């Protein structure tokens, strides 16, 4: 099964921060792959903007270097680099802006804010002041979107002063992952699951986003954020919304986002004993405090919590969410844990068996359903759990083994003007409104995160969080 590529109309895409880490590692490779796939038409322009004094040639060389790992066909590479232009500009100053508009068409123009969040407001204001905001203009805003509710509101206000909400694309790259979109297809495209998707049949849901790496070069930023702000408030919250939301009337941006917002607003405040905070401990060759150079920092690199959604569908079904760095494996999985069959006709010795629907976001994107069958062979009725494997590569053919990167999908959605997979301003604010009291509680109590070993599954208290409820986490497997 070969996926169809639908070319878009010519556009101008300005990448502010075009020399930065995100632009070189994610944005440009994504654009290159879409270009190689034939989706980017002649006449489309990609303009990198940064403070550095590059010219078009040296900028193309810089990006060509970032694309080395792509195993790029020289012909495709040449075609992509030809579309690249460069403009040196300081977002905090007034000079250079008029030059940016030269050569821009009347069609779609997208401005990607891949710079420090401190500059988002200045960029919005200057784009407007220099007449670059046309009706077809749109902006893409990277995370973090604010540090708390107040700063997110302030940022929403600044952006709203110059752009309509339908021109603002707040990116959460988790929403661009193929399996995350598949989650909606599985839920709302099949009769099979939806009738069971409620507290009557679902015992609980586990959402795990585990990373095996530490903070790396992001230490300075991360130490002011922590896992709660960096991961829980956005990525895990978005996954929770997609799992828990009611079916929208149609797959349209506001219909989907209205339903997600209802989920966030129905979340109860998290009780202090339903949350575990951890920090990877100083050990041999590994340790958060040493990595960020602060022996006393109490920033969490791990959070596990139990959330409750107070609505008819989910009352009584807990959602356990956990995320952390330097864990045993890189693995993002949602496990929908169904209840045991109400009565076992096979007797005590057959054991207890429950279905588990696992949606793996990374690595090895795919979906498995654990079902109970008879163990083969004579000698009575012994039951065994086996996975019904819906790995996309197996089901859809080898050409789908490497689904498009989230950034490929999301950037093309910006160009097409489809906001379904982007966060709306009120959604972000609601997520902060739920997160802020948790962080404020830690600060008020002087909470110190529990240490955990690098390469482990996190602090022991996270296991207790489950054990107290008679449940256990599924393994974190690569
Ligand atoms: P970076 O520090 O590597 O790059 C910053 C870019 O901004 C550079 O091109 C720099 O020249 C440019 N810049 C800085 N000040 C400027 C100014 N006054 N005017 C014009 N350009 C200016 O940062 P990054 O890692 O690429 O991150 C960019 C944004 O993306 C940040 O908001 C970050 O939080 C977000 N983000 C990054 C990652 C990642 O993996 N790097 C992941 C998620 C979100």
From TrEMBL:
Residues 184-474 form the Glucose-6-phosphate dehydrogenase C-terminal domain. Its EC number is 1.1.1.49. It comes from the Bacteria. Keywords: Carbohydrate metabolism, Glucose metabolism, NADP, Oxidoreductase. GO terms for biological process: glucose metabolic process; pentose-phosphate shunt, oxidative branch. Gene3D superfamilies: Dihydrodipicolinate Reductase, domain 2 (3.30.360.10), NAD(P)-binding Rossmann-like Domain (3.40.50.720). The active site is at residue 235. GO terms for cellular component: cytosol. Catalyzes the oxidation of glucose 6-phosphate to 6-phosphogluconolactone. This is Glucose-6-phosphate 1-dehydrogenase.
